Amino acid sequence: MSGVVVTNPPKAAAEDVEALAGYGVATVSEAMGRTGLLGPQIRPVQQGVRIAGTAVTVLSWPGDNLMIHAAVEQCGEGDILVVTTTSPSTDGMFGELFATALRQRGVRGLVINAGIRDTQELREMGFAAWSRAVSAQGTVKATGGSVNVPVAVDGQVIRPGDVVLADDDGVVVVPRERARRVAEASEAREAKEAATRAAFVEGQLGLDRYGLREKLTQLGVTYRSYDEYVGDGDPS
Could you give the CA distance from residue 110 to residue 100 in angstroms, rounded to a whole number? Predict the structure, then answer.
């Protein structure tokens, strides 16, 4: 497998990344029309952490982390390393030594569509990571691949410089040219949710706030008393 290392790709503006960092993964995905999510198998190895940054992408051979070493050189302040493999892999391709090198370069975290190890050490050093698997299985450094090319994870395309946002709910990717608009849409959605939350605190029901009573009627859902429902029989 030959490959390419692309240097200095375009990136989302830092101010747009920071604007998106204020919102959760679910909010941002909803603001984009329920798009951009990586699959639910990509899970955090820590809890209570949210990161946002620009993607540095890696396409590797399964069980081979050579191209992660090549990618470290291309990483800088505010980046998130995104790694996938040419075919499914759960090998532990990334651990504490990689995290040490990346943290020195200002990298905010890792999203890997494969395995990760040294999870306790990663939590202790505060390096955030999301992975498909946790595995102590080691890897080799033998096969070429690519850095900073478009990659796909669970059908979601991630390009170098796109915004990656990750929290306890998962990972969402925002195309770099849409970052500002999505941040504005996320702000509007959060304001709407705040108003709804206040209404619920006051006792309003979702059935009424969202106009769902008519929907139930349209679907043929009826209300009957318990006695009407069970008649004269024993409901048990």
Answer: 12
Instruction: Tell me the CB-side half-sphere exposure of residue 166, using CA atoms within 13 A.
Output: 30
Instruction: Give the pLDDT confidence score for residue 155 in this predicted structure.
Output: 94
Distance CA 108, CA 16 (A): 16
pLDDT of residue 150: 98
CA–CA separation, 144 vs 3, rounded Å? 6
Cβ proximity of 116 and 134 under 8 Å? yes
* Separation between Cα atoms, residue 217 and residue 80, nearest integer Å: 48
Helices (H) and strands (E) in the chain, counts: 9, 11
User: Which residues of the chain are modeled with pLDDT < 70?
Assistant: 1, 232-236
pTM: 0.93
